[in-house]
Amino acid sequence: MEKTTKGTLYVLIAMILFSTGGLFIKLIHANAYTITFGRAFIAALIFLPLIQWKKLRFSKKHLALVIGYCYLCIMFVLTTKITTAANAIILQCTAPLWLYLYYVIRGKKIIGRELLPRLFILVGIIVIFSAAAGGNLWGDLLALSNGVAYALVQYFMDNDYPVSYNSIVGVNNIILCLVILVLFPGQLDFSGLAAIGWLGIIFLGIFQIGISYLFFFKGIRMISALKASMVSLLEPILNPIFVFFFVGEIPSVHSLIGFAIILFGIALTMLPIKNAIPVEEG
Questions:
Q1: pTM of the full predicted structure?
Q2: For residue 230, what are the CA distances in angstroms to 73, 160, 260?
Q3: What CA–CA distance (Å, rounded) separates 227 from 220?
Q4: pLDDT tens for residues 206-219?
Q5: Sequence spans of domains, the chain
Q6: b/e code 2-23 from CB counts within 10 Å (16+ = b)
């Protein structure tokens, strides 16, 4: 098998595993903090042997990454619980809009070819928020804020660190567990969790976070970032499909229209731009 084909297959497997998050979060009868902690704890155990402790150095960039990651993980589970899976995942995927706005604020020249896809994303957001698009308005607002957190994570993951990405993911999940223990200890409740619930949390920790990241990092080193981004579009597509078939949750017409518009905008952002001027990082 060719390197590119193998890399694409690895990323594809990762996206399929990522996409199961909405389904299992809906099926597990526990609050968002309990699920987030259990998932992160198991993922931390998986990555623990891969952490390069001697090379680990915390910096402002890594701290920002940790903050974004903790917010992202907590809010994804919380929003999936209180709004539709389709709204939760697609509003989180509005990250390209917030990254672009950040670069514009920093002085990036506005180019029509770059602006148009973001306008599609903005229109999709407006459509989803019209009449709450069959979801929960508060949940949709939190999901939208999670798009900002996702942009933060993407921005700070694209930096050079003295340790491997596996080390970063492992440390991030350890810190996530500590954050929940410190800030939300009263929310943790595993007492009423049935056997199926435990199996769901174990699956999320091992496969949806742990093994999926191993496949993703291995695959992304074999193919171009553009191709990996295109394959990544499977996650926001498959996530609500899994929830529909196994839970029966049907997004509203407004939600589906907004979903399609945002997805189209995201796809446009991934098309290569000739003579694009990169923005230097500060």
A1: 0.88
A2: 22, 23, 15
A3: 9
A4: 999 999 988 988 88
A5: 3-269
A6: eeeeebbbbbebbbbbbbbbbb
